[in-house]
Every structure is written in structure tokens, then in C-alpha cells.
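This follows on from our talk about sequence and fold. Please put the record directly below this note.
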Amino acid sequence: MKGLKFLFFLPLLLTSHVAFSEGEHCLQRSFSEFGNTETCIKNISLSKQDFKQVCQPKDSDYVQFTAKYISSCPANYKGVCKGLKTQSGHNLPYLSYIYENDISFMQSSCEANGGKWEVGDA
């Protein structure tokens, strides 16, 4: 469960208010107890308000982070977890492309929580 919580809250990093629409992405860089992290969040089916909540946390355990909205996730990601389920059994409505983090931990956490890990293009 801790792995799922980490994967779910990993994208909760942005603080600035930016206009965006469904289907956009947010690129996040952070430092936390988990180390340096670079992630791109791809919105699949979240409403504008829900995507804003994913990208703009009200509270955060992250020591430092920066983020910005972009039109698509960049190449050279190390992996992505697809088909990850929420606690209610629905597919998570966004994807997290991982660029920098402990990839073995991310992969095992993804698979332990019902997702399929896909190796990136890096």
C-alpha cells in the first residue's frame, strides 16, 4: 500500500496557478525523503479541477520542487506504470512518466499494485 500511496502522491507537486485543459501534462522536479524525482504527469481522464488537485497539492512532504504545465511529456523517460488501479478498482486517470528516481522501486511498486511497468525510451 505504501508503494501505491507513493505512486499516487508523487505527482502532487505543483504550486502555481496556470490555465490548462484536459489532456495536458505537467513536468515536476522535486526533492524529498525519496531523493531527487523528475516526473511528467499525463492527464487521461481527469476533469480540469481534479487535474489541478493532482498537480497543485494543498500539503506536501516534498522539501523542494518546481513544476510547469507543458503540451506533452518529453522523451528519454525511464519507465511508466500503466493500468494502475485506485483503491476502488478503477484505472488511475493519469500516467506518471518517470525520468529520475529509484526505477527498481517504482517498477516493483507498480506491479505490486496491479499495474504494468513499461520500460521507457531512455
In short: Confidence is low (pLDDT under 50) at residues 1-22. Residues 103-112 form the longest helix (10 residues). The radius of gyration is 13 Å. Helices lie at 2-9, 48-55, 103-112.
